[in-house]
Input
Amino acid sequence: MPSKTGGNPKAGALSRLKAVEADIVDCFACPRLVAWRTEVAAVKRASFRDEDYWGRPVPGFGDPDARVAVVGLAPAAHGANRTGRIFTGDRSGEWLFASMHRTGFANQPVSVSRDDGLRLIGAWVCSAVRCAPPANKPTPEERDRCLPFLVRELDSLVEMRTVVVLGRFAYDVISRLYGLVGRPAFGHGVEVSAQAGATRPSIICSYHPSQQNTFTGKLTEPMLDSVFERAAELSGLGARTSR
Output
C-alpha cells in the first residue's frame, strides 16, 4: 500500500518522481513486452513510418502537486509507445485530455506529442503497466512486476486525494494496492470514498476512453466529464462545470 512520506510533504516530491521515471524508462524486466515494444517501434504503422518511435516503457506525467491521479491500463502500441507520453497520440488520449481540458485539469485538449505544450493542472496521468502489451493484454506476471512503479509514483504525489481509474483492469490494480476488501463491482461512476483519517485516497471509476467504448456510445463526453467534475469535488478542488 502506498504510504505518505513524513516531514515536509512537498520536499523532494519532484526528485522522487524523476527518480521513478528514470527507473521506468530503463526497465527490461518483461521479455515479452520488451520484444513487442521493440518490434512495434521498428516495424511502425504506415501512417507514422517517418517518425522515430519511443519504443520504451512510458512514465507518468503531469503536476507534481496533483490532487487527482488518473490510472489507465498500458501505453498504446502506436500511441504512447510512439510518442513517449502516456495517452498521447491516440484516440483514447484525444478523449481523455479533451475532457480534462473541459473540466480544468489541462491547459489544452491536444495530445499529439511530448512537446505539444500540454500541461496538466492538479492532475497526474499514468498507467498500471508501462510497456505496450500485445493485444493490449498484459499477463498477471507483467502487471505485478510493474506494480512497484505505480506504488512509488502515487507515494510521491503527496497532495493526491483521488484516483480516477480508467477501466476494470486499473480498478483491480488500485483495489489490490489499497487492500479494498468487499469493494463494489466496477462500473462507470462507481466510487469508493476515503473515510476520515484513511491513508488511501477516494477512488472513482470510469469506462476506459477506448475506441470500442467511445464509438459505440458506451462512454460519452458528458459521462467522462462528470467523472472529472466529481474527482475535483472529492479532492477539495470545488465543483467544476464543463466548458
User: Anything to note?
Assistant: Residues 13-234 form a domain with the Uracil-DNA Glycosylase, subunit E fold (CATH 3.40.470.10).
